[in-house]
Amino acid sequence: MYRQQKNHFDSNAPRESIPDRIVSISKPYVRPIVRGKEVKNVEFGAKCNNIQVDGISFIEKLSFNAFNEGTTLECRYTSKKQLKLVAWNIKTPS
Q1: How many Å apart are CA 53 and CA 92, to the nearest integer?
Q2: Could you tell me if 1 and 38 lie in one domain?
Q3: Domain range enclosing 33
């Protein structure tokens, strides 16, 4: 954290953002996520993608860094199809 701040202030561009900025000493894995909301435009914590099949939620991706949900859309669709097949096979008696 000290090294990040020192490099930031020693550089000639103090308004430049710091990649993978550490914002907490006790939780160094937490990163700021810019949301662009009216009340809080920056949030801290995990970002999670869920898949819901027959009322059961599955965590597809959990990350403390910001990510674009659109990049995992195709993978989420195939995961949901596979989970639905597994759930259907469990429900049907053999």
Answers
A1: 16
A2: yes
A3: 1-45
